[in-house]
Design a protein that fits this description.
Shape: globular
Number of strands: 11
Distance between the termini: 23 Å
Helix content: 40-55%
Strand content: 15-25%
Bound molecules: zinc ion
CATH architecture: Alpha-Beta Complex
Radius of gyration: 18 Å
Strand order of the largest sheet: 3-4-5-6-8-11
Low-confidence stretches: 1-15, 280-284
CATH topology: 2-enoyl-CoA Hydratase, Chain A, domain 1
């Protein structure tokens, strides 16, 4: 299993931030904003981006001056999901073992590290928040979105996969709505996301940056250890309801779906092409 060494990362002593090939990291006092920055690819999550994001979060965790983290996306879209062109080129012929290693580390493991991040996190979402994008945004404690935002997980329709790797859906919108979203593959728009409690606030696109930062700065005023304990208790409430057990069971089921005849047929025709064939036009 190769581990990316972040060859493009360098330390900027003045800004106290790292520079990444696929991310932009800014500090605003006690708030660290980490933005996905592959605008031309609608912030599709490549292996490098996922490794860089995990690295950036680790640094924010270790930095005592950072009290709240915002996870954002540059450009018109938060993230269209995993980079399927890269997946087709590099991972189409993965063995079961190789896929398990890759997805358990970079999809499941990295997501749970966001969930378990000891400081409060806020997702800042505009445009597409789809599949792998939906997964990471919903690992954050709060979600602020613009009126252009939409959320979907169409991979049951497009790829014949058992949803995305981390089945966060029923925990952030309720079981019935999660079934509708996954059975239809259709989008949930910003107002609907607010109505069903999946996002905390909807703001005009032009105000998204400032509104998210203002919320994060408000949170950052609270004593950090107390906040850390509150988050710990809230996440343990989910654990008491079976959160981690359900997610890990789904990961196994998702791996099974990668071996199905249905999935193999899609893979042979091309993963990225499967998205273009789908009339909804969204990635996974
Ligand atoms: Zn998968």
């Amino acid at each position: 299993m190769e581990i990316a060494l972040h060859p493009t990362a360098r330390h900027d002593k003045d800004e106290e931030t790292m520079e990444y090939a696929t991310l932009a990291v800014e500090r605003h006092d006690a708030v660290c904003r980490i933005s996905l920055a592959r605008e031309s690819a609608r912030n599709a999550q490549s292996q490098q981006m996922l490794d860089e994001l995990d690295d950036a979060l680790s640094r924010a965790e270790q930095d005592d001056a950072v009290r709240v983290v915002i996870l954002a996306g540059r450009g018109a879209h938060f993230s269209a999901g995993h980079d399927l062109k890269e997946a087709q080129a590099k991972r189409a012929d993965f063995t079961v073992e190789e896929r398990w290693d890759y997805e358990s580390r970079r999809y499941y493991g990295y997501c749970l590290r966001i969930w378990d991040f000891p400081k409060p996190t806020v997702a800042q979402v505009q445009g597409a928040c789809v599949a792998g994008g939906f997964m990471i945004a919903n690992m954050c404690d709060l979600v602020v979105c613009s009126d252009t935002a939409y959320f979907s997980d169409p991979v049951g329709h497009t790829l014949a996969a058992a949803a995305t790797e981390v089945l966060i859906h029923p925990w952030v919108m309720g079981l019935r709505k999660a079934k509708e979203m996954l059975y239809t593959g259709e989008k949930v728009d910003a107002q609907e996301a607010l109505r069903i409690g999946m996002v905390n606030r909807v703001v005009p696109e032009a105000e998204l940056d400032a509104a998210t930062l203002a919320l994060a700065q408000r949170i950052a005023q609270a004593p950090p250890f107390g906040l850390r304990l509150i988050k710990r208790s809230l996440n343990r409430t989910a654990d008491a309801q079976g959160f981690r057990t359900a997610l890990s069971a789904h990961f196994d089921t998702h791996q099974l779906s990668h071996l199905s005849e249905e999935f193999q047929a899609v893979r042979e025709r091309g993963l990225a092409q499967a998205i273009q064939r789908n009339k909804k036009g969204e990635a996974a």
